[in-house]
Amino acid sequence: MSRQTFQVEIADMGSFRARAGETLLDAALMSGVDMPHDCRSGTCGSCRCTVSSGSVEGGATDSPGDVLACQAKVMSDLQIVVEETPPVESFSATVKAIRDLSVDVAKVSLAVKGPFEMLPGQYVQVRFAGFPARCYSPSAPLEGPLERGVIRLQIKRVRNGRVSSALGREIQPGHKVKVIGPYGSAWLRPGQTNRLVLVASGAGFAPIWSIAHAALCEMPDREIVVVVGANSVSDFYMAPALWRLVAFPKTQVISVLRNADRRHPDLPVGSPVDHLPALRPGDIVYACGAPRMVEAVGAVARAAGAACYADPFVPGHGSAAGFWEPFARAVAAPLQMLRRSGARASTTA
């Protein structure tokens, strides 16, 4: 007779009983074990963990042994390891400044009240007073030094976007903001020396720049390849950061245009995926931006045996309530086929 319940132990967090076929995350939360999580649809990667003993069904990622707890069904006794990340907190902020970086990307600086800890590459949920919540990836400054107590966002303006269209209009400096986070597992792991391959399209450069900046602060001679895609030359709002990157001896920057520009025949054309370096098993890849691009980079990384952390950006849908449902129907299902470690959805509207 098959067993109906199993013992689950999560290192440094606790143990509990789970029903056969119950998702690991649901079983943990129902037992009072607060595993990190956010979307619960298999996309954000916040619930990524390692199965050190036992077996689950579903929720696999590109990294052997790593699963997404919200999708992994308990099939035996389990021993689980969860990477330590800063706790999710809620805190108040105000809009400090809004400045256009390009025609459709705005830099929004938030002055934070009190200390706040997050890792390079993680994201936060931001609710401007009177507007629905959106998820954004804080970034390092494109120019100049880091400023304590400030969260820097790079927000893509979307036509008729409920939030992005209000920037500089209804949302002005002094506007009150509620921030919750951090979330996500596509963050820079410190202390590693492997080559980094960082791939971004559009505003997906925000977490990529945060990761690159932190990696070079830790190890200036680390080998890094940054591949950045844009629709046109005017969309390379991140040019100041790219110039900073090429100053490092082992950092290569590849800027890619979607369509050819006769004024810039030296720039490669196509998708960032078309211009990836030959990946090696020891590489660590981060891909952030358009879901299709992120999916394609993940497939190349998986074929090469490289570790991959992904961050697919998708437009927001109405209010925060029900945000994930339409996303899951439209985008998450095909992305789940990759079961990529560290994937998340980010609203840009």
Automatic annotation (TrEMBL):
<dbReference type="GO" id="GO:0051537">
    <property type="term" value="F:2 iron, 2 sulfur cluster binding"/>
</dbReference>
<keyword id="KW-0560">Oxidoreductase</keyword>
<dbReference type="InterPro" id="IPR036010">
    <property type="entry name" value="2Fe-2S_ferredoxin-like_sf"/>
</dbReference>
<feature type="domain" description="FAD-binding FR-type">
    <location>
        <begin position="88"/>
        <end position="189"/>
    </location>
</feature>
<feature type="domain" description="2Fe-2S ferredoxin-type">
    <location>
        <begin position="6"/>
        <end position="86"/>
    </location>
</feature>
<dbReference type="InterPro" id="IPR039261">
    <property type="entry name" value="FNR_nucleotide-bd"/>
</dbReference>
<protein>
    <submittedName>
        <fullName>3-phenylpropionate/trans-cinnamate dioxygenase ferredoxin reductase subunit</fullName>
    </submittedName>
</protein>
<dbReference type="InterPro" id="IPR017927">
    <property type="entry name" value="FAD-bd_FR_type"/>
</dbReference>
<keyword id="KW-0223">Dioxygenase</keyword>
<dbReference type="Pfam" id="PF00175">
    <property type="entry name" value="NAD_binding_1"/>
</dbReference>
<dbReference type="InterPro" id="IPR017938">
    <property type="entry name" value="Riboflavin_synthase-like_b-brl"/>
</dbReference>
<dbReference type="Pfam" id="PF00970">
    <property type="entry name" value="FAD_binding_6"/>
</dbReference>
<dbReference type="InterPro" id="IPR001041">
    <property type="entry name" value="2Fe-2S_ferredoxin-type"/>
</dbReference>
<dbReference type="InterPro" id="IPR001433">
    <property type="entry name" value="OxRdtase_FAD/NAD-bd"/>
</dbReference>
<dbReference type="InterPro" id="IPR012675">
    <property type="entry name" value="Beta-grasp_dom_sf"/>
</dbReference>
<dbReference type="GO" id="GO:0051213">
    <property type="term" value="F:dioxygenase activity"/>
</dbReference>
<dbReference type="InterPro" id="IPR006058">
    <property type="entry name" value="2Fe2S_fd_BS"/>
</dbReference>
<dbReference type="Pfam" id="PF00111">
    <property type="entry name" value="Fer2"/>
</dbReference>
<dbReference type="InterPro" id="IPR050415">
    <property type="entry name" value="MRET"/>
</dbReference>
<dbReference type="InterPro" id="IPR008333">
    <property type="entry name" value="Cbr1-like_FAD-bd_dom"/>
</dbReference>
